[in-house]
Amino acid sequence: MRYRKGMIALSEVRDYPLLRRVLHSNFVTPAQLYEFMKLDYCVSSRNAFDNRLRRLLTHDLLVRHEIPTMNRGVVYSISRAGASELVGRGEYYSGSTDIGKESNGHVQHALELNDIHLVLKQSRTLVRWTPESDIRSRNEFTEIGYVKDYDAVIAVRFDEHEHRFALEYERTQKANGRYQEIQKRIQAETDFRHFLYLVSNYDLLLFLVKKFEGCRRPVYFGLRQDFLTEGLCLSVQSNLSPVSTTFLAVLKHGLSRPSGGRISAS
Length: 266
Description:
Elements: H1 15-25, H2 30-39, H3 46-58, E1 62-66, E2 74-78, H4 80-87, H5 104-123, E3 126-131, H6 132-141, E4 152-158, E5 161-170, H7 176-188, E6 195-199, H8 202-211, E7 220-223, H9 224-230, E8 235-238, E9 241-246, H10 247-253
Parallel strand pairs: 5-6, 6-7
Antiparallel strand pairs: 1-2, 3-4, 4-5, 7-8, 8-9
C-alpha cells in the first residue's frame, strides 16, 4: 500500500509497543527505552531502534526534551498526537500531555521509577507492571479501581505462586496531611496486602516509618538504591516492627491478596 507524502505507517510490533512504553513511562531516556524494547523483543538492533525513534520524532508522535540541569541528557515523552493515536486504539489514559510543563522533579521521578521497573523485568520474575496511568484511568472511570493512584501495582511470580503488591517511590517528603490521607486509603485497600515504599535516602526512610506508625496495615520501606542492586531481596523496615527483613521474605510469608478481597485484573 502506498501512503501520501508526509504520512507514516505504524508497525504493530515495533512502533506501537514503543509508543505505549513512552506513554506509560511519562519520561524515558533513550537507553532505558532501548532496554525495555529489547526485553520485550520489539527491537532488532540499536541502529534500527535509533532510526525508529527519529522517524517517530519527525512525525511528531514523540517529544524530545533536553534538560541541562539533569545528568541524564535527552529524555522523551509522548506527544499529544502520539497519545491521541494510542487512545484511539483503546489504550488506558486519563491524563493530558502538557508539553513544556515538565519539572525536573517530575522527570527524575519517572526516570528513577523506570530503573526500578527494569530491574524487575531483567529478573524474569515480573508478571505484570500496571503503571500509574492505567491505575488512574481505572480509578477515575470505573468502580473496580484501587483506593489510591499508586506509582505501580506489581505482580511477580516465584515458587510457583503469584504475589501482588503496590509500589510507591518517594523522592522527597510530602506535607504531613498527605500522609494521614494515604494511611486511610491504605487501610481501606482490599485488593492486596503488601505495600512497598522505595525512598531516595535513609533519613527519608526513617521519617516515613515514623509517619506511618499510626497505620494499622503493615507498610514496608526500603532504599531505592538497594532495590537496584538486590531486587526483591532488599532489606525493608515495617511501620509495625523494628525488626528488618527482606521484601522477598514478606511476599513469601503470605499471598498478596487478602482472602475475601475483590479481584481486579492488572
